[in-house]
Structures are given as C-alpha cells and as structure tokens.
Amino acid sequence: MRYSGLLNKTKFQVLVILVLFIQLLGNQQIFFITNVKGAATDPKLTIDTPITGDFSKVTNVTISGTVENMPPETPITLYDGTEEKGTTNDVIDNIWTISIPLAEGIHTITAGFDVDGVQIISNPIELTIDSTLPNITFINPSNGDYLNSRSIEGTTEPSAAVKICMDCTEDSEGKVIGTWVSVNADSMGKWVYQDSKLTEGSHTVYANATDLAGNNGNINKATFILDTLRPQVLPDIFPKQDMTQVSLNPTIRVKISDATALNDNQDVISKSINLSHDGINVDGTINYNNLTNEITFTPLNPLSPSTKYNVLISPLGIIDSAENSAFPRFWSFTTVGTAPGEHQNPHGSYTNNVNTCGNCHNTHASKDPELISPKMETAPEQIVQKENLASDNYCMACHDGTVAPLPENRLTAHTHNAAVKIDGKPSGSSCASCHNPHLDWSEKNPNMAQDHITYKHLPSDPVDPNKPTEEISSKEQLCESCHENDSAERIANPAVEYRVFKYSKSSTAIGIYEDYELCLRCHNGDFKQKYEKIADIASHYNNLTEEIKKQYEDINGQSSFSNREITVEEKDFSGHIIKAQDGSPLVGYLPCAECHDTHGSNNIKQLKESLGHESVQSFNAVDTDSKIIKVLIGSTEREFKILTDSKGREFCMACHNGTTAIYGVTGQKYDSTRIQHSDNPDKACSYCHGRGETEVERAFSAAHAPKQGIVPEP
Description:
By secondary structure, the protein is of the alpha+beta class. Among the domains are: 37-129, Immunoglobulin-like, CATH 2.60.40; 137-226, Immunoglobulin-like, CATH 2.60.40.1220; 232-335, Immunoglobulin-like; 595-714, no CATH class. The protein has 14 helices and 41 strands. The strands form 13 sheets. Strands 2, 4, 5, 7, 8 and 9 form a six-stranded mixed sheet that branches. A five-stranded mixed sheet has the order 11-19-18-13-16, with no helix packed on it. Strands 21-28-27-23-24 form a five-stranded mixed sheet, with no helix packed on it.
C-alpha cells in the first residue's frame, strides 16, 4: 500500500534521529513516552452501530465506531454514498460518535479520515430510514364479505410483524380490548392468519402491523361472515333414485340446503343439472326458484321409453354467496315402457286379468317344475345367460331395452348369477333372487324387490311347542306352512307388517343393517354354510340395526339417529361407518352400491370401475388379479377367490388417497412412511386392518368393516 511505504520511510527517519540523539546525550538516562498505542500497526477505522441492514424510524441518526492508530486531532468524516454528512474531532478512548440527518430510504454510510494525503475508509453499512407508519389491508375477506375458509389474508410492509385480534371489542375511547395473536408478513408483505376453531357466522377481525423500523401502524378491521358449508342436495329428489315407470315428460327437481343464497346467475345455474343416457346429454331448460331453493330441469323433447337416464347435480352450477360449490350427486331412473294399454302388465294385475299368469307359465305344456313356458327357454342372442338359469330368459325377453329396460351392466363380463328363492332354497332364476316377478309396480317398491311379512307371535297358554314365539318372518318360514287354509285372513291382520328387502343407496341409506338386507339376505353366515362361494358379509354390519335405531330414537327423539355423531365404539367396529357431509342421510355403513355394481361389472367381484364421488378414481381388476384361497368349513374344504395383495391395496387406495371424497368425506391418505406400512410394503391392507382366522376372513373384514391396524404376530 502507498501509506504502508510512507510509514516505513517515517520509521527509518525516526530511527536515524534517535541514534544521533543518543550520541549527543552520551550516557545520560533516556525516558520513552509509551502512550502511543499500536505504533507499529496500520490505522483502522470501523462503524460499529448501527449495523448493516438496520432500520431507523428517526431521520437524525447517531453513527458510532472505533479507530486504531489514528494520529491525534485527525477529523473523522461520515459519507452517505459520496455526499459528506458530518465530521468530528472528538475521539475518546478510540471511540467516536457523529449524528447526521438522513432522508427516507436506503443509505450506504462510510466513515473516513486522511493521514498525509492517504484516505482511510471504514467498512460500509446499509441503513434504511423509515418513519412512515405501515398500512395493513385485508385481501380476503374484504369488509362485509363472505369467507369460505378459516384463513384470513392481507398485506403490509415486507417482513413486518402483524398482530391479529379476533372478535375483540372497542371501549369508549376506541381502544381494542382482547387477545392479540402474532403472525409475520413474508418478504413480499403478505401475511396469513389461520384459526381452526373459528365458528360459522359473523366475525370482526382487527389487524395491526409494526414494521422493521419499529413504526406501529394504525389498527384496521373487517367484519365478515364465515361460511365454509357447501350447498347440499336434499334427499327429497324427483324422480327418486332407481325409480322406474317415470313419465316421458318428467321435470327433474332438486332442493338445495345452504346457509346463504345461491348464485342465481343463469350462466351458472344452467350447469347445475345434467341429464344423460348412454353418454348422450339431454337438452333442457333449467330454472331456479330462490324462494324455495328448488332447481328444476325440463327436457325440451320427450324422453325415450324403457330407457335408463342418469342425473348429475354438478358443483359447477350450484355455488353460494361464499363461493362454496355444492357436493355432487348422482342417481338414475328408468322411463316407462310402451304406452299404457298396448301390452298387458306381466307383473301383477291378476285380479283384472286371470290370463296374466299365462305370460310366464304354461300349466300343461311345461316340463319345468315352476311351469315356466317352454317357448321362452331361449334368450335373445345378444343376452348372455348362464346355462343353469334358463328361467331368466323370460325376464330378458322383455328386459332387452324394447318393451322393458335392459338391466344396467347386464352384458358385462361378470354378472350377478345367484339363484336362491325367498325361503333360501335353490332357484332357477337369478333375477327372482332379488326381484319378485309377481308384484305389481309401486312407488314404494319401483324395482319390485323381494318382500316379506313379519308377525310377532305371542306365547300360547298352555304352551304349544309347535307354535313359534317372538317375531317370525316369511323369509324364514312361509305363513302357509301353518296357516294353509286361512293364510289370507291372517296376513290381513293389522299386526302383520309388510316389508320390502331394501337395497338403499345415497339418497335413502341411513347406514343400518336393514338398508342392505336385499344383499345380506344371502351374504350371511347361514348361507355361507350351505352354499359355496357365498361370503358372510352380514356379520360386519350387525352392530347397527333397525332395533338399535328405534331404541336410540325412543330416548333422543324422532330422526335423532340420523343426526347423531359416530361413536368411538362404532369407529372401532368399522372404519367404513361414516357420517355424510353432502346432505345424504347416511350416518352408518357405506352402501354396497358404492363399491359393487348391482347387476354386473367388467371387474371381478362386480367391483365398480369408477370409485368415489369427487376426484373419482378408475379401477380395473380382471381374473388374473385374484388368487384362490382354500378354507376348511366344517369338514369341507372350499375355495374362495380374493384380490391379490397388490390389487387389494390398489382398490383401497383408490379412495384412501387424501383427495377422493365420498358423501363429502375425504378418504384418509395412505401414509407410506408409517412404520407399519414401511415394514410391510407388499402386504394386503387386510394383513393389519382385517380380523379373522383365515386370509379370506381378514380380506372380507377389511373390505367391509376395516379395523384399526394391528400387525399380526409372526
């Protein structure tokens, strides 16, 4: 350095002078002045306070620092960039201080002094002067808005400290009284406050910001209405789910329940109802009545007869004032067949036409024990039927989409081919296993599902061992077995209750055992003992029954069962007991139809090819995706087909992915990092979430009533 060379030259001159001085004094004693600190080092100048990056809310700023080896009485000057801002000669114990005025903004400050024309410069510091009070604004919600989440967002100065006071009060002097919560703005000034316990309804939020310079801004406030509840489609829809014989000129009607008004913009409402068949949309007009919250869809042209139509209530067309979109809803109905009077009704109407029986039965010519007419033994070529279910051919002769609708998915690879009579005996008809062909159509039983009657026998006095006691059902014992001559009179007794085996779905299912009794009538422990390939599903549904529902409502009031919360005991019994959030009455077991297609599917086990209501997932399972498990039942070894471990996991995770929702309830996401999962990555879900002695039992348990995970002992 230039100054370093100068210093060395000076040292040499001083040394020469000292030698000459010693020679002149001879042996006289010499006293050295030793208070020149650091005489052998270079001068050094630093700024100690403030430090670089500091903020100041005052414009007159005091800068201080230290020096080393600076010649006495040397002035120190502060610079803002290249502009000289202040000077001092006061250096006490090597510490200096200078106060300078600075304008708003960012400044680069340095200090310097001059020694023999050499400029000694300090380290630079960057200092921001900010005397302006920070503003705080609300992005969401604005004052008077609806809010559909529990997150409040706003902006202020970058990196400012924000305080929030929720639902606080103001005293007579305008001072806010309440508890303040701190959040921080990011480098762009955006801040977010979240309160998971914030209740639905009206609220007032206060916000205040303190910037990095320490300026405390004015308090801002916003009043808003929290509405996170999505609009719901009420169960009272028309046409009803799976309704048949629907007019060719129907009006689709749904009623919406929501805390706020719907967006009645016609462009939005026009997307609310979609009617289709075979993937073809039906043109129609959509209207919304904001007084009744009813939306209607009227087709522009008559519908086709004997046709199944699908209804979709779309979230895109039902949006409330808080911008919550409705839960989707799906159902189907079937239109009436040929015009009345053109063909006789083959189901029922026996009192009007005694020849109706002859539509199916031939008294003298049939060799079939059921007297099925031999002319109907061959089905139409396009209908695929099992050889041992020839009686179904008559059903399909009409239910081919011409005179009567073709059952959905009837032509798929895997169809429902069970053949069991109402009393549990083998039958020649799979159709009659679920449907009673002798019933006439009714609105309460539009699909003519199998029915039965029940009667509670009182104990006889004296006791008759041949007379049953307690409630007895015709599904277990026909009334004619005892009341052969007076059964009609007995059945007319008001104490005899007529019941239909239910097959309830989203619009009607509460979630109790009886809602799915049409399926569970066969899929139970008794039938498992009698028939091969029948699984006991009923035992996984027997903790929620109609009797339990009645007992609950006797204590808590009518309809209280559907409004209750799921108990811990119920959750422990089955993870598939849920409380619907989409307006459906479900507060129990998932309906069978959520996982299985009724009449048939291209998937094995008649599993559905699309799963979920929102974020719908595709699922495919062919025969190679199954494995055969041999199980000893009594003294008989039987074979059961279940999904492979990998396909079983895929099926479960179609819903358990954190995004797919059913009845408004999102499936809990599978956590691959969970130690039980990471230790058993190739195991079926039933390995931990099923119960039973065999792999088959655990598979059925996990599918229908999954339990909390327990890793089996090796």
